Amino acid sequence: MRLLPSLAALALLAAGTGWWLTAPKPLPDSTFAGVTGDATHGEQVFTAAGCASCHMAPGAEGEAQRVLSGGQRFASPFGTFLAPNISPDPTQGIGGWTLAQFGNAVMRGVSPEGEHYYPAFPYSAFNKMTVQDLADLKAFMDALPPDATPSLPHEVGFPFNIRRSLGGWKLLFLRDDWVIDGTLSEPETRGRYIAEALAHCGECHTPRNLLGGLERGRWLAGAPNPSGQGTIPNITPAKLGWSEDEIVEYLTSGFTPEFDSVGGHMAHVVENMSRLPESDRQAVAAYLKKVPASE
User: Fold this and answer.
1) Residue 25 to residue 16: CA distance in whole angstroms
2) H-helix or E-strand containing 232?
3) Could you say which of 87, 214, 215, 250 has the lowest number of CB atoms within 10 Å?
């Protein structure tokens, strides 16, 4: 009978340890001290990160793409995620957020209420953003049109609807180091920042394990489409045989060397990339040539 109290104590200790380990971990309070955002540069960050591509209303075109009312649906093996309203509306959007709250959401996947966000929101890439770029991004987004459309709930069933369990996912898979490391030229370093952080290319082009963690050893080697329809291509040198100039042209015009044209969600990516300085597209091309070939 003495064993029962001991087992109960161990169970309580294990539960407490698990609760502590899976707790959201916000950024230090000092992270944004003295940081002021520049909205002009923030527009470039916004474009590179493709914020409108996911958070505009379904089917939005032209300037309506900058009304970030949300509502697009993103199917996955874990359920369907619906992009929330991130317009500056103070009630339905994020207009009332402080820079620290915005930073915790984007770089740590932690909501202002202290809950984990699902990694369908690519904070696992955005956590490599510079603090200044983050502040610039918020300054630009604060000036976009507000919209009072309520965010819709995600369609995620048990056990994936237990938000606290995402703390365990973060412990296993959330990393802030670069995938491609070592000595890089200035353009390659800039390309890495765009591809691995802002544009979060690996989130789609890298295969995932059964728990949804990126298989970094097969970086950019292609993956099944989360919707279950088709595949996302391998863009390592093993499959993408284009020259750097051809990659730049594709990211500018959407045309491949074979005179095919971009389609699907990648069309939004190319549209965003085409708005960046050409030096950034050249940097991405240089980075892709640095990625190890993977079959």
Assistant:
1) 16
2) strand 231-232
3) 215
Which alpha helices (DSSP H) does the chain contain, by range? 3-21, 39-49, 51-55, 99-108, 123-126, 131-141, 166-173, 186-192, 202-205, 244-253, 266-274, 278-290
Mean pLDDT for all residues in the chain: 92
- Find out whether 235 and 220 touch, Cβ atoms under 8 Å: yes
DSSP string, 40-88: HHHHHHHHHHTHHHHHSPTT--GGGGG------EEEETTEEEEPPP-SS
Mean pLDDT of the 195-224 span: 96
pTM of the model: 0.92
Residue burial 252-272, b: 16+ Cβ < 10 Å; e: rest = eebeeeeeeebeeebebbbbb
Q: Considering only CA atoms, which of 131, 286, 126 is closest in space to residue 197?
A: 126
**In this structure, is the dihedral angle defined by the CA atoms of residues 61, 111, 40 and 278, taken in order, positive or negative?**
negative
For the chain, give the number of residues: 295
Spatial separation of the C-alpha atoms in residues 214 and 161, rounded to whole Å: 20
**Cα separation of 63 and 57, whole Å?**
11
Q: What is the spatial distance between Cα 266 and Cα 201, in angstroms, rounded to a whole number?
A: 10
Helix (H, G, I), strand (E, B) or coil at 167: helix
In the DSSP assignment, the letter for residue 196 is I
Residue 119 has pLDDT above 70, yes or no: yes
Is residue 206 scored above 60 in pLDDT?
A: yes
pLDDT digits (tens, 9 = 90+) for 8-32: 555 666 556 665 678 999 999 899 9
Residues 196 and 180 sit within 8 Å (Cβ to Cβ)? yes
Are 121 and 109 a contacting pair, CB within 8 Å?
yes
Q: Please answer whether residues 134 and 106 qualify as being in contact, where contact means their C-beta atoms are separated by less than 8 angstroms.
A: yes
| pLDDT at 287 > cutoff 80 | yes
Distances 1 to 79, 229, 295 between C-alpha atoms, Å: 45, 57, 58
